[in-house]
Every structure is written in structure tokens, then in C-alpha cells.
Amino acid sequence: MNLQDQIGVLEAGVDQLLQAAAAAHAPRADERAAAVPQQESPVASSEAEQAFAEQPQTVAVDTAVNAVDIAAAAETVEAANATVTETAEAIEPAAEVANEATNAAHAQPELHVARPSQNEITLTIGGQTVTLNALQVGQMIEELSNARASMQPEPPPGIPPGWRFASTKNPMMAVQKQTNGDRLLVLRHTGHGWVPFTFSPDIVVQMYMMLTQR
């Protein structure tokens, strides 16, 4: 049961107490009204005077009963307010924790890359840190490169401004002729590892001209 439901139950209980007090007071008022007869005879007048003499005591008793009922209802309301306050104070920290947990669940984990030493890379995702050596970094580069080749959007067709790169001078290379006349050229990059390229015969001619022009 949540806080609003508890408040509704308490208010309903107070209303029932007040209705019960009013119902107990109503029959007594009817009895007093019926106890005062019409002036028909001296005997009836005497009885009326006696009833009138007894009336203040009855009214006093009824007033005391009503005061007790009202005091009990007031104590019930006060206790209900205290219970509601305590419940709200107890629920508030739990609600904050639940909100923080919900926000953390919906938040995307961030990737942090660090290099504690020359031959180590650390990757931290969602508070979990993994340390990779040179061989593991190379394996990851290869797997990521293979996956990136089939992803969209493709890399930009032109060299982007401000692009940072590490070039390899006079790389090792291997060439293989394909059955359809294409040439497979594999270059060894110090960062990316062995990078394969396939050239059709016309592109081979264009590349030769680009490399030999002055």
C-alpha cells in the first residue's frame, strides 16, 4: 500500500468515528424532545418540571460524551498525521535510491581509454576495467576493422581535416595476382597491422602513374 492509500484509509476511519459520534448524539436529542409533554394536567406539568430539572444533567452527559468522542477523533487524526509523516520520511530515501538506480539503468555506459604504460591499454566500461597487451590490442584492431568494413555509414571519401594518423615508412608488402586479373596488395602498418587492398588492372595503372609522376 502506497502513501496515498494509507492517507485515504486514515481519513475514512476519522469520518466513521465522527459519524458514529453524531449518530449516538441524535437518539438522545430525540428522547429529550419526546420527554417534554403537552400541558394537559397538573400531574403532567409536574412530570415536565421534573424532566426539565433532569435535562441539564442529561445535556451535560451528552456534552461529555461528545467531548470524549471528539478528543478520541483528534488523537486518531494526530496519530494518523504522525504515521503519515514517519512513512513519508521513510519512503523518501528509498525513492531517491530507486530514482538513482533507474537513472543509472537508463544511462549509457561510457568508454574510457587509458595508457598506463607503453605496452598496455586499459579499457573501462561501466566501472569494469580491462588491461590489454600489444597482442590483444592488435587482435581487437583486427576484429574492429573487420566489423567496421560492413557498417554504415562508410568512412568519408576524402581525408577529413585535422585527421591524426601514424604513417609507416617503407612498409613490408606482399602482392598476389588473382584469377580475374586483379592484384592483391597487402601492406604492413605498424598500428593497424597487415592491411589488404585489392586493385583492378586499370587502378594499378593509375596508381603507378600517381607514384611515378613528378
Record keyword descriptors for this entry.
about 210 residues, alpha+beta, 3 domains, three-stranded antiparallel β-sheet, 4 helices, about 60% helix, about 15% strand, Phage tail protein
Description:
It is a single chain. The chain is α+β, with helices and mostly antiparallel strands and 214 residues long. The chain has three domains: 3-106; 109-156, no CATH class; 167-214, no CATH class. 58% of the residues lie in helices and 17% in strands. The chain has helices at 3-34, 42-106, 134-148, 201-212, and strands at residues 111-117, 120-125, 128-132, 173-177, 183-189, 193-199.
Topology:
Layout: H1 3-34, H2 42-106, E1 111-117, E2 120-125, E3 128-132, H3 134-148, E4 173-177, E5 183-189, E6 193-199, H4 201-212
Helix pairs in contact: 1-2
Question: What proportion of the residues form beta strands (DSSP E)?
Answer: 15-25%
**How many structural domains are formed by the residues?**
3
Q: If you average the pLDDT, what whole number results?
A: 77
Spatial ordering of strands, largest sheet: 1-2-3
The level of helicity is 55-70%
Radius of gyration: 47 Å
Q: Uncertain spans, ≥5 residues at pLDDT below 50?
A: 36-44
What sort of overall outline do the alpha carbons produce when their principal axes are compared?
A: rod-shaped
Number of helical stretches of at least 4 residues: 4
**Helix/strand-derived class?**
alpha+beta
Number of strands: 6
H and E string? HHEEEHEEEH
The span between the termini is 84 Å
Instruction: Tell me the major beta sheet.
Output: 3 strands, antiparallel
